[in-house]
Amino acid sequence: MAAADLDLVALICSRLCHDLAGSIGAINNGVELLAEETDPAMRDDAIGLVAQSANDAARRLGFFRLALGASGDAAEPMAFGEFSRVAKAYFDGGKLSLLLPATVGSSLAKPLGKALLLGLSLAAQALPRGGNLALTQQGNSWQIRAEGTTVRWQESVAAGFGDGALPADPQAAMARYTKRLAESAGCTLVTGVAENSVTLGFAPR
């Protein structure tokens, strides 16, 4: 494996650790409170904290397992029902409103499905104050559109979607891997940034 690929793997692992650290830390805090607290009301609060944090960790793990995992044959399709369930769970309870196609057939090519999941995650991060996140399909082309009052498209993410050297940044690594997945699915990935929106287009080459 080339050094650049090793760096890519390490940066993606850093992103995963960062994404899960908060939930795992909250679970640990809740368990510590349960061990020390005798007041029934405080114990109920601690149990609620543990339950919510465990749910947060589970939905994040489910998302990245489908988006980054290698279960099954790479040539096997990804069921759109599973894609939709995992994407909705990942964004549930946040500041974003997620819109997915009602019907797109029964499955997606696995590399494309993974690229779309990661693309949704990256586009969402451009909306720190929340907004609307939509995935649409037109023929064999797909578009992710993130729209809100505040758009912050990180330079490292833009560089990751490019062809140059990869910045030492986990977000850039996710963007580069998303681009590779799209290419392996036979798609060209094109990004667009406007005042109030970010778009990621996946079109057949």
Question: Would you mind describing this structure in some detail?
Answer:
The protein has a five-stranded mixed β-sheet, covered by helices on one side. A two-stranded antiparallel ribbon has the order 1-3. The chain is built from six helices and seven strands. Helix 1 runs antiparallel to helix 2, helix 1 packs across helix 6 and helix 5 packs parallel to helix 6. It has 205 residues and is an alpha+beta fold. The longest helix has 34 residues, at 3-36.
Q: Summarize this, please?
A:
By secondary structure, this protein is an alpha+beta fold. It has helices at residues 3-36, 40-68, 80-91, 110-124, 155-161, 170-184; strands at residues 77-79, 96-99, 107-109, 131-138, 141-147, 187-193, 197-204.
Strand coverage percent: 15-25%
- Count every beta strand, where a strand is a DSSP E run of 2 or more residues: 7
The best one-word shape is globular
Q: Are there runs of 5+ residues with pLDDT below 50, and where?
A: none
| Count of DSSP H/I helices | 6
* Class by alpha and beta content: alpha+beta
Q: Distance between the terminal alpha carbons, to the nearest Å?
A: 27 Å
Q: What can be said about the biggest beta sheet?
A: 5 strands, mixed
Radius of gyration: 18 Å
Mean pLDDT: 89
Q: If strands are numbered along the chain, what order do they take across the biggest sheet?
A: 2-4-5-7-6
In sequence order, what are the helices and strands, one letter per element?
Answer: HHEHEEHEEHHEE
Helix coverage percent? 40-55%
